[in-house]
Specification:
- The structure is a single chain.
- The chain is globular.
- A two-stranded antiparallel ribbon has the order 1-2.
- Helix content is about 70%, strand content about 0%.
- It folds into two domains: about 5-45; about 60-325, Orthogonal Bundle (MetI-like fold), CATH 1.10.3720.10.
- It is an all-alpha fold and about 325 residues long.
- α5 packs across α15 (about 285-295) and α12 runs antiparallel to α16 (about 300-325).
């Protein structure tokens, strides 16, 4: 195997540098416009990572915490996070792992429900809208469904409380149709809480999430639909064999991104609706961090829980990306 002469290597490197410099010089306006966004990301996404150092400090001594001289604790906070130490909560005492374990369980369960319900409803709505031929009706439905995305979660939860109240619209409808014999306490029954969270999230975000799938469907070559129709394929067959395969790459990319947010079950809905008897199924990792960071003032433990959540999210994102790459699908990185 012949080696490349040193002068040739220098010439190649010089050519690459000059090409890079030329591209940068021709696109300096774009580079200048990207500086504010780059600074924003560095300031609000990367600079706060310095706070992770608190996960390795002991904040049990309030005096040391107040003066900012909390001693190093190593992995002690993580050990406590998964230990069986008991802590005082409403109604008695509970194991710390039980408290964090319940939050982890609830987070994973509600995230999975949101992922499945959100993905299925978005694809289904996108397919239905894509099949509508009346443009006016299509635009009206699309606008009505994505407007709730811009509503504050406080407003959405307030509406849900009225709709799912004992004398609300849902119970009134079910009673009038004879589907139930007595009112259901939707907001105070643990069995329905996860389902309610999924329904509220779908109602708020389904229209917004549909936009990207509709965009992907518009990029499908119309000749494929025409060829399928000539071969005798009905509308349902064209959806199954042309439309859905056409958005497969978009679905995989969004699935990878959503798996990275699998520990992001939400905060507002659970915090606003998860009081009292449903706290056991409503507490998420975010609520756990808030409780131990602000109410119990155990900043180290709260930071450790938040750090655990972030690290697991990164691992899930990488694993999902590797699986997609192994299956020869489009990947995020």
């Amino acid at each position: 195997m012949t080696s490349i002469p040193v002068n040739t290597k220098k010439a190649i490197n010089t050519g690459r540098k000059s090409k890079f410099t030329k591209i940068m010089g021709s696109q300096w306006q774009l580079m200048l416009m990207s500086i504010p966004m780059l600074l924003y990301v560095l300031l609000f996404n990367y600079a706060p990572l310095w706070g992770w150092v608190n996960a390795f400090k002991d904040y049990s001594d309030m005096t040391a915490s107040a003066t900012g001289n909390a001693p190093w604790f190593g992995l002690g906070n993580f050990e406590q996070l998964f230990s069986s130490n008991t802590v005082r909560v409403a109604g008695g005492r509970i194991g710390l792992w039980n408290d964090f374990g319940l939050s982890l369980r609830n987070t994973l369960a509600m995230s999975a429900i949101n992922l499945v319900m959100g993905t299925v409803s978005s694809i289904l709505l996108a397919v239905l809208l894509n099949e509508v031929r009346n443009k006016g009706f299509k635009r009206t439905v699309q606008t009505v469904t994505y407007l709730p995305h811009f509503l504050s979660m406080i407003v959405v939860v307030s509406m849900a409380q009225n709709i799912f109240a004992s004398s609300g619209v849902v119970n009134s409808f079910l009673l009038s149709t004879g589907l139930i014999k007595e009112e259901i306490f939707w907001l105070g029954d643990k069995r329905y809480f996860w389902l309610l969270v999924g329904i509220i999230n779908v109602w708020k975000e389904v229209g917004w999430n549909t936009i990207i799938y509709i965009s992907a469907m518009t990029s499908i070559d119309p000749c494929l639909h025409e060829a399928a129709a000539i071969d005798g394929a009905g509308r349902l067959q064209r959806i199954l064999h042309v439309t859905l395969p056409g958005i497969k790459s978009t679905f995989v990319i969004l699935l990878i991104m959503n798996i990275g947010h699998l520990l992001e079950a939400g905060f507002e809905i659970q915090y606003l609706l998860g009081r009292g008897v449903v706290y056991e199924v409503a507490s998420t990792i975010d609520i756990f961090v808030l409780k131990y960071g602000t109410e119990k003032l155990d900043i180290g433990l709260a930071t450790a829980a938040g750090m655990f959540k972030s690290v697991v999210a990164i691992v899930l994102l990488i694993v999902a990306n590797l699986i997609a790459k192994a299956l020869d699908e489009d990947t995020l990185i």
